[in-house]
Amino acid sequence: MQHLEIRLASLEDASHIALLGRITFEETFGHHFKDRQDLLDYFDRTFSVSKIQKSIAKPNTVFWLALVDDLPVGYAKLKLHSPCEGVAKNAQCQLQKIYVLKDFLSMKIGLSLQNQLLEKARELAFENIWLSVLHSNHRAISFYQKNGFKQIGTHQYSIGKEDFDFWYMAKKL
Known about the structure:
alpha+beta, Aminopeptidase, seven-stranded mixed β-sheet, 5 helices, 7 strands, about 35% helix, globular
């Protein structure tokens, strides 16, 4: 039986989170990129160790690290005081990331990470939480819908030469 541990991440976990971010993003979205350099440039901007360290150190972000038998396999990020159009203005936060290595998805680690994140948001007296999800990521959309999130809008985001359509989803806490 494998042992799952979910704990708050520290600055010392930045290299694990940076690597997990790169691998899980590649696993989920890599096929959308025609130009590999666009993806590599995005990794350098988004998943560098120094960028993750700075993000962990910010007072308005909370990270969790998921470990299976001491092996880092996923992480989650909650952004506090993060407004979103279309979400009630009172006390908003953002579920910014839940990334889990593909080989560990069947262990329901994403659900465990989400539960920790939602518990923390409630503990901090947030009333609403929102997220942004790629409209074609049906597995993630289904996961969020099962957990009470509803689509509230759409937006576009570009990475390099690729344009992506996203859904905003939100729920009351």
